Amino acid sequence: MTPREGGEERMEPMVLVEERTETAPACEAAPKLITVEEAKRLEPETVADLFTRHLNPGQLHFMKLLGFHKVIIERAEGMYYIDREGRRILDFFGGFGSLAFGHNHPRILAVRQQFQDEKRHEIAIAFMSQYASALAANLAEISPGDLDMVFLGSTGSEAMEAALKVAEQAQGPERSKILYAENAFHGKSKGTLSVTDSALYRSGFELVGNTMRVPFGDIDAIRGAMEADPSIGIVVLETIQGGGGIIEAPDGFWRELRALCDAHDVLWIADEVQCGLGRTGKFYAFEHEGVVPDVTALAKSLGGGKCAMGAMIAKRDVYMKAYGQPKNAMIHGPATFGGIGEASCTAIEALNILYDDGLMENAAVQGDYLLTRLRDLQAKYPKIIHDVRGKGLMVGLEFADFSKTMPFGLRQVLSVLDDKLKGSLCGFVGALLLSDYNVLVAFTEYNRNVIRLEPPLIAERDHIDTFVDALDDLLGRGIVRIVTDFIKRHARAR
Fold it and tell me: Is the domain of 255 the same as that of 383?
């Protein structure tokens, strides 16, 4: 009862409360996940099983052929991988140019640890990032001419996509056709794949159609294409073809290309993802001819060997024409992970190390020494080594076709198999260098007879001597024994 106005009392309505027992929802059973500590202890057989079931069984097939599937790396430092057994493997592969500073450079580790200890921010999409801004400023300071507008991403493909898009946006739809080169590799995303000359990688994908292919380094072919087709507004070229087998353009080509692009108002994109960042003895490989492209791209070693970092750098007038107004500024704005904090700090430190430690100068000196020693080896084994080429610490070692390494009587018989056997000698040599000499080398996508050498820029003369002496000893066995030794080791590794 509660009092009413005027002193009367009124009956409160009775509310019946039903007693209920709350039942907690059933907990979903947690998936059986592998921890980091468990992953570190996985045996090679278990890793191979997981790789087959969840990553790429076809790739594992090739790793088994080379005997690489038996190796589990425990750690890496400087010029070396160290496996579970403590074996030190000299790295002349260098992650296709991703390890300019070697493995786990102490200064790079320190700057990353400091970033984490101070709980700095990683993603700053809503705010300006001091780290991304500083990295962009450093790249602009390093880059020649008016290359001073930067887009930050995570990979070479992403950087090259940004390069293609800024050029096409600046040129407009009437000048959007792109010239690219035979044996080019610019990435595997659909845009970059459209200017990558690989039947394997292109597969059956429906790709961008506004492209035209020309021979690499052929200025007359490029001139003819530009004169015949005014819709050509962009030419994209690797300054040195990596996947093509470490191929350089003829002397003077880049100066002629710059003049030709200027005459026809064509934008030149220089893909420096693999050959840039000091690998050839200069920061950009195109600087050897004193020219400046309209757009360029970096990745790989820009991440200091510890993170994924890519960058597109464009001339200011090109960038501003494409994205310089508020209405078009976000057409190709930053991605979620573009220029994140720790990656930007890592790249900032890597660029400083490059100059502080004189790594570009070292690449030039050690590269000359490596080429000299390999050419001496070519003179010693002229039937086996077809060519030695490269610049700085980006070197290609091309073996002869298999038939040409054989005694005269077998050459004609085996010559019909040369195409099918292409790359086999590289595979035998690469596998035996690893198993017998603890040296790791790389291969190339297009010319399978080429071993690709891109060691860290911290390489010293004794590292080069170790590699070349190992190769000399291996080639000294002769082709027949190299083949039989490979077969024996492959049989044991299965």
Answer: no
> Which residue from 425, 379, 432, 420 is spatially nearest to 399, judged by alpha carbons?
425
461 neighbors 366 (Cβ within 8 angstroms): yes
Is residue 267 within 8 A of residue 257, CB to CB? The reply is: no
pTM more than 0.85:
yes
> What angle, 0 to 180 degrees and rounded to 10, lies between the N-to-C axes of helices 253-264 and 219-228?
10
Task: Say whether both 122 and 164 belong to one domain.
Answer: yes
Q: Which residues of 141-178 are buried (b: 16+ CB within 10 A; e: fewer)?
A: ebbeeebbbbbbbbbbbbbbbbbbbbbbbbbeeebbbb
Q: What is the CATH number of the domain that holds 260?
A: 3.40.640.10
Reported as a pLDDT band with limits 50, 70 and 90, residue 4 is very low
Rounded to 5°, angle at Cα 262 from 256 and 265: 135
How far is the C-alpha of 291 from the C-alpha of 247, rounded, in Å?
Answer: 19
In the structure encoding, which two tokens stand for residue 414, read together?
């085996």
**Statement: residue 331 has pLDDT above 90:** no
Phi, psi of 19 (to 5 degrees): -75, 125
Instruction: Give the orientation angle of helix 424-437 with respect to helix 479-493, to 10 degrees.
Output: 70
**Residues forming beta bridges with residue 19, ordered by sequence position:** none
Pairing of strands 147-153, 88-91: unpaired
CA 361 to chain centre: 22
The answer to whether residue 211 is domain-embedded is yes
Give the separation between CA 90 and CA 442, rounded to whole angstroms. Answer: 12
Same domain, 167 and 299: yes
Residue range 12-28, pLDDT digits in tens? 544 444 555 566 666 78
**What is the rounded distance in angstroms from the CA atom of residue 98 to the CA atom of residue 452?**
13
- H runs (alpha helix) in 195-340: 199-202, 219-228, 253-264, 316-323
